[in-house]
Amino acid sequence: MIGRTTISGSLLVTVAATLATATHATLAATPARISNLVDKPNLTERDRSEIRQYADFWGRQLGEATPADVDEARGKLGDPLRAVRVGEVFRFEYSDAVVAHMDKVVSDGSPHAAVNAIQILALLGTPASLEVLLAHISIEQEPDFGIRLWAAIGFPTAVRQNALPNNEINKALRDLGEAAANEARAAVKKREHDETRWLLLRRQFEAISSVKSQTSREVQVKVIRAVTEAMGTRQGPSDLMQATYRALLLMRNEYLDLSATDQEMMGKSLAPVLCDLCTVAAAHWDNAQKDEIAREAYGGAVHISENLLKMIDARVRPDQAGPRTELGPAWRNARKEQFTHDHDKWRELLQDPPYYKSR
User: Could you give the C-alpha distances from 344 to 2, 123, 339, in angstroms and in order?
Assistant: First the structure.
């Protein structure tokens, strides 16, 4: 009995000592905070070493952490980037140290860890981190819905860091536009309703429209055209109209804030697409009118399209009277004959200059 007690006590002492040593080693391995470096105009070699140690430690933690510990690792990686002022020197040095870890986590980590890595890449907002985001925005390269979704959500955050040159932003906008078009084409290949498609398409369009530039507007028009063409290949109704409706709301608001010159430029290319969208509504009329959700989405898209068409035509042809139509009310009141009659007016007008050259 005495022997057993002695042995057990020895074991307890040994275990306690081992745990104490392990805990001490873990604490020693945890790097110091680097928040004091974020606004330094110049970094010493020691500073760079501390940044890399911090990035390596928490980058590995994010890749290897249990689901319960992922949030802590993401928080530690993001803390330096949430300072009131993050200097460019620090941002790019930190990006060089972090991006490779995040790239690996997005490609090989758990879905939860990958989404958190995407959020860190967005906060970095450098060309290197944007490159990784863009590698995961399209269904052609990234099969995981969640990663594609967060890559789209992360783009506006990356732009807001003000560390991206215009040419990088413009390239990203075009890549996002192609990703949105691919998402629409993939959606119409499926015959059943797929809510995730239109939700992702909506986020992709929001990402594009978050940048206020001519390139962004050109890409927005191309996306609406691609989605309209995709919806037109099936009988309908299409869930994609829900994303299209919300996209048109954003486009209308942006159009109203443009100069007269930019309104005319955007309007010439957008007007034929809006008319084509109404063509899809006419083709899907019977099935869409029977579906409550579709009826609302299609009706909203038709209403905004018609209002935009009237504003655009008044800007593009200021000395000529535009068509007097009521497409919105015709859809809302299920008056198909009137809808067809009014739609034909726009179709005929948009076949002539100055519109047809922009199609």
Answer: 102, 49, 8
